[in-house]
Amino acid sequence: MKESMGHKHLFPAQVYYEDTDHSGVVYHANYLKFFERAREDIIGIDVLSDMWHTKGVGFAVYKITLGYHDGAVFGDLLDIKTTWKKEGDYRVVFFHEAWRPNATKAAVTCTLELVCLGENKKLMPIPDLKFLTSA
């Protein structure tokens, strides 16, 4: 995980049966759900809700790069390790890793770029948000 950002977050993600495919391994797209929950935990659901409902501002995924290295299975409690950095006025980049219990390498790695959008899906500067300034 990129530690140079100064921002670090750990989020536990329980793997339920519904998260797996027929072989008992986490379905590839479900890692995106785990990473989304970690980001909501970092930013704050109340902050995201207020941004949307009172200001008409939200985030949209701009780009994702995923690497699948080891499949998590039903019953695992994953550690979602996240760092992030603001890149310019409009974009924030999150670096996620999903770690299985007692693993020596991340099961899945993800670089995800969000952009800030306002009304009519127009690009706008990211508001001052606590998660971007606290280390």
What features would you describe in this structure?
The protein has 135 residues and is of the alpha+beta class. It has one domain (9-133): Hotdog Thioesterase (Thiol Ester Dehydrase, Chain A). Helix content is 21%, strand content 35%. It contains 3 helices and 5 strands, in the order βααββββα. It has helices spanning 30-43, 45-55, 130-133; strands spanning 9-14, 58-68, 77-87, 91-99, 108-117. Strands 1-3-4-5-2 form a 5-stranded antiparallel sheet. A hairpin with a 3-residue loop joins strand 3 and strand 4. 23% of the residues are buried.
Entry keywords:
135 residues; alpha+beta; Thiol Ester Dehydrase, Chain A; five-stranded antiparallel sheet; 5 strands; 21% helix
Short note summarizing the structure:
The protein has helices at residues 30-43, 45-55, 130-133; strands at residues 9-14, 58-68, 77-87, 91-99, 108-117. By secondary structure, the protein is α+β, with helices and mostly antiparallel strands. It is elongated and about 45 Å long.
